Q: What sequence folds into this?
């Protein structure tokens, strides 16, 4: 599967004619147009871009590439210690050189993670390696999207949805989720950061939380919002309750809430997680590309 097969055709005829420069306030509208065009593939990057530009100025680590018609074709965007590359319409050799040049700038933080379409992350990994970085772990995913209206399945017996769960109840599930699905091999669980993340979910994200026989059983929440999309993340069902249809119902209920808000839905799921993939496919999600997150 090639990620580029899913993308709108590039207007760039000569990739070496592509002009890179640091974004400024005059580039904001064109960058928004570009992100909207490719939005299903860039929900996380677009979400961070929106946050930065709410101040009226682009982030200091955003480089964009324009073609001969002055149309944005590619970008590489640094959000704190996270790098978001997107090289549609730019040769891999040129893109690698751009990242190497970017890494020579005196930033306060080193790159900790690279996120994006697999092809773009692979280019970034080569640049980071040549710049002295060591890849410590990486996760490969399928990027999936849902455009049709979800059908809510029957609610499993014994499952009760709780509208306003306590931070402590949600923390139990989030902590287990992070330790099972999120933390890279070289990392360690941080209770303080997890609790801060739970507080943010309760404050900012859409959440569906369920209890089974009075115990925290399952949850699913959004973790990013772009212009027309909400991204699902943090789907977790207690191991002893898996296979009862709880995960399918929780995810479907969250999708229903997202769609009722007028947004489209995306997510990425680990390639090895076949049970989760079956759930998403059952609900109508389609694979639109391959996604990768690497850690340094």
A:
């Amino acid at each position: 599967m090639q990620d580029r097969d899913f993308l709108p055709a590039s207007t760039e005829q000569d990739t070496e004619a592509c002009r890179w420069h640091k974004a400024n306030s005059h580039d904001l509208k064109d960058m928004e147009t570009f992100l909207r065009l490719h939005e299903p593939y860039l929900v996380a990057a677009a979400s961070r871009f929106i946050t930065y530009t709410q101040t009226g100025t682009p982030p200091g680590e955003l480089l964009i590439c324009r073609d001969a018609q002055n149309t944005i074709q590619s970008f590489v965007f640094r959000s704190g210690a996270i790098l978001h590359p997107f090289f549609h319409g730019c040769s891999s050799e040129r893109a690698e050189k751009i990242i190497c040049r970017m890494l020579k700038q005196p930033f306060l933080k080193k790159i900790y993670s690279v996120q994006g379409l697999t092809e773009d992350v692979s280019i970034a990994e080569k640049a980071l390696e040549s710049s002295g970085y060591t890849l410590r772990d990486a996760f490969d995913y399928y990027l999936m999207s849902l455009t049709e209206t979800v059908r809510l399945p029957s609610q499993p017996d014994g499952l009760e949805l709780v509208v306003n769960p306590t931070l402590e109840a949600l923390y139990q599930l989030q902590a287990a989720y992070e330790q099972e699905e999120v933390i890279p091999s070289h990392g360690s669980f941080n209770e303080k950061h997890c609790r801060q993340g739970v507080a943010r979910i309760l404050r900012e994200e859409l959440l569906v939380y369920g209890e089974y026989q009075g115990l925290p059983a399952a949850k699913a929440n959004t973790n990013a919002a772009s212009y027309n999309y909400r991204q699902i993340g943090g789907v977790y069902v207690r191991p002893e309750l898996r296979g009862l249809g709880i995960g399918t119902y929780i995810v479907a209920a969250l999708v229903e809430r997202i769609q009722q808000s007028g947004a489209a839905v995306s997510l990425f799921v680990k390639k090895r997680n076949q049970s989760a993939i079956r759930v998403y496919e059952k609900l109508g999600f389609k694979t639109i590309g391959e996604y990768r997150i690497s850690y340094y």
